[in-house]
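Appendix B. Raw example, untouched.
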Amino acid sequence: MKITHSLFALENYSIVKISGDNSANFLQGQFTCDVTQVNEHKSSLGALCNPQGRILAVFTLFKRGSEFFCLLSSSLVSHFINHLSKFAAFSKVTLNDITADFFLYGYTGEQNSDWFDAGIPLPNEVRASAELLICHLPGRTPRYLIWSDKAQDSAKITAPEEVNTQRLSWKLVDILSGHATIYPQTIATVTPHMLNLHHLEAVSFSKGCYVGQEIVARTHYLGKSKRHLHHAEINSNVQLDPGELIFAGDQEVGILMDSVVIDSTTFLLIVIQDPMDRMLTLRKHPLIINASPLS
């Protein structure tokens, strides 16, 4: 399924600002991505892990001036801030939810659209001005993030009638692109390799230590991740929750990361064991699975 030339209001995403003179060093010791490579022209997908290398949050990291900004699921903001704040005080770093100050949009379509006067050809590339930021998001499906300062002239982005407010459709764009969101139900259930974050420049293997680094590096160099991300479908309308388990017979073999119902089909993003040549079910519904892992 393909969605073309659509602009969505991202009502289920939030922005957390991280500020302080030592914020770069602090985040470098917390996040999987290389924070030193993030600047006003380049963003990075990244993850926050626990000491066991399990993901607590997935985000996109930006920098404007001396401050960093994380875009992540609104359902995780309180947990994200509370977790990092336990350590941030020692580095004189502060975290604040500033979502209310911005309009957030997601765009999918060709980059020569009227929305982009200047091309943004590379994933993670950023174009920004005082009131507007546009970022080319990584993944299989062309996606762009747009944020606009509410204190500035938001009319430069769109007229209200041109915005699709159906966030579920943007969720489909994320699913098709292979971008897995972490929800409260899926905290600490998967590793960066299971979500292919190492293929999306979201994990650095050369920057040094961060929380969970030893486990993540061991998985990478020994190639021992036995579960990977796949697309799947159910040929019916089924409302599902992240974190639900997937079975092969009576054996648990995977977990649901995300899903969305479009018309009479349920589109899913799942993490399952490899190889998997048996019939898989979720709530006893048979799954139609993409034969190859997403990468």
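End of appendix B.
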